[in-house]
Amino acid sequence: MGKLQPRTSLTFLRRVWYNFVKSNTYRITNDMGKDVYTDIWDYAADHYGVITTQEAAALGVPKQHLVTMSNRGTLTRLGHGVYLVKHHVFSENDVYAHTVAQVGPSGYLRGASVLAMLQLCPTNPNLVYVGTPIRCRRRLQKGVMLVDRKGCDCVEYEGIRSEPVVQALRTALDEGMVERTRISEAAQRACEKGLLTNEEAAKFKE
Hints:
15% strand; 39% helix; elongated; alpha+beta; three-stranded mixed beta sheet
């Protein structure tokens, strides 16, 4: 397997914006008088503006606080147990991160969407391909192509759980997501970026 792409960190200006909004948002404190929204912001700032109920619980923030902040408009509910912080500075990978989060903790990006996120080849921007090893009954937005009960030895690209590039190429090819010519070109680009070995890339040559 090739090298993983490092997570692109937030720019200084984005961090300043997060701190500004955080300091000008109605606060909710826990029993110890601590501002729980600060913890939520700090976490969400490095996760595409998203926090889930499980992640909040790990920070000591109960679900009812998220519901309260959602009702007040400081959080936006994206799906079951998934929230977006107010005034999030959007990035081009948000659609992938948010969709994976909505699938659930075991969700991952797959096929053409991995290739698109890593800018290896152009794909249909109206479709996002995701998977999960368990059954998923969550209601997802239009354009989300979900395959459930299908496992994956996931890695992280840009902080998002994903199929490894070599598997994403095979998935995109076998399921007809991307034309063979573009798959071959994408494999070459992935090799140049250190995401595939020469041997792995050679398997996708026409």
